Amino acid sequence: MHSAAKYRSMQPKSGKNIPLHDYLYEQKYDGIRMLAGKATDASIELMSREQKPITAAFPELVAELAENPYSFVIDGEACIFIDGRPSLGAVTSRINGLRPSRKIWKIIPHPPAMLLAFDLLELDGEDCRQLPIEKRKALLKDLLPRKRQFIRCVEYTHTHGELLFKHARQLGAEGIVCKQVGSRYVEGYSDRWLKFKVAGYRPDLPSIGY
């Protein structure tokens, strides 16, 4: 089993009130949840939240992940931006267009996808899930060079969660996620992570014609 396939994602629960202290705050991006793994044999595997292989749909991510000298499993969101906003319709269409052979496309589709990475589950064969989230994020930042075209670390703040939520609403973004300081990475839903969606937010989905 490939390293990415043996893990299940940690999921935030819906919150009622944005916590004021002892949390990390980051913007929630509208895309496809992804576990991205590079094994010791340098092979790359991208898995959806439902643990389905989606590697073939994202050649640009595969190429950049393969350049990293380490083995790892990263948690993040695969997004495609159109006019500066993430388009859920575009990224789901990419996955729905997978070839039956599952062969990786050699030509990067347009518009390209991005992996917005926010957590690290494994590094060089070491399980990182029991480390506090601050340490995992620090390791992730060291793992991923800044000068990447398609893979970036999600920025976060230790304070002013309400201001970040207000900013998300002004941008027309989906919302924010609040992650408790010191929290470990556990599979499934956890109240250590809380999500807050902007009221009235509508994802960018393709229209259906007849």
What does this structure look like?
Strands 3, 4, 5, 8, 9 and 10 form a six-stranded mixed sheet that branches. The chain has a five-stranded mixed sheet with strand order 1-13-12-2-11. Strands 6-7 form a two-stranded antiparallel sheet. It has 210 residues and is of the alpha+beta class. The chain has one domain (3-197): D-amino Acid Aminotransferase, Chain A, domain 1, CATH 3.30.470. The longest helix is centred in the middle third of the chain and has 11 residues, at 133-143. The chain has four helices and 13 strands. The radius of gyration is 17 Å and the shape is globular. 19% of the residues lie in helices and 32% in strands.
Short structural description:
It is built from four helices and 13 strands. It is of the alpha+beta class.
Q: Could you give the topology of this structure?
A:
Layout: E1 10-14, E2 23-28, E3 32-38, E4 44-48, H1 59-66, E5 72-79, E6 81-82, E7 85-86, H2 88-96, E8 114-123, E9 126-127, H3 133-143, E10 151-153, E11 156-157, H4 161-171, E12 175-180, E13 188-197
Parallel strand pairs: 1-13, 8-10
Antiparallel strand pairs: 2-11, 2-12, 3-4, 3-5, 5-8, 6-7, 8-9, 12-13
